[in-house]
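The instructor's notes for this session suggest beginning with a concrete chain rather than abstract definitions. Hand out the sequence below and ask the class to guess, before any prediction is shown, which regions might be ordered.
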Amino acid sequence: MQTNYRTVAGSGEASYEISKSRFLTYVGRAETETEAAQFIVTIKKKHWDATHNCSAYIIGDNEQYQKADDDGEPSGTAGRPILEVLKKAALTNTVIVVTRYFGGIKLGAGGLIRAYGKAAAVGLAAAGLVERRLHTTMAIEADYTLQGVLENNLRLNGYPIIAKEYYEKVKILTLESCGNETVLEEKVTDWTAATARVTRLQPQYVDIPCTPE
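After discussion, reveal the predicted structure:
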């Protein structure tokens, strides 16, 4: 499991027209090559009457799975420019399909490369980008007399309070970035004079909005 990686915030759609050719862009997240392939098939079925449905994706912890498909356009003029947009944005686990409806005017190799690259970039802008940062869910159990102290200190130190549970003691759930769990544990010890118990629970990703590099 990756500690941090960049991907799209969610699904996105955009359109772009040049020289009477219409380009429709579809962007999505995909954790596996199978998911990416399914996404591409879905768009191809939706636009079965299109001139081309070109695509590219990057998948994996080390961006090790990459594929570009020109779908009938001249070699290297469609899928590769889409893939290069993904690389430039430093994204993984992302798939893009650009559907083209030919308008009767040929764009030439250079024109196609620019058109598909722009269509991919417009699609990413519509989807939005995030950095997914892995955090550990931390459960803090303490006497009710310490609830206010804990909540105030958590907020002052930038820790989110994601849930509160009330039993014999209050349990507050928060997040700490993976690898820094001892930082929060030491803070809680100081805040409560070592009377609270901190338990590390499951990891989860937190999405932080970001911009293209």
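Then share the key points. The chain has five helices and ten strands. Helices lie at 33-46, 79-88, 108-127, 147-156, 181-192.
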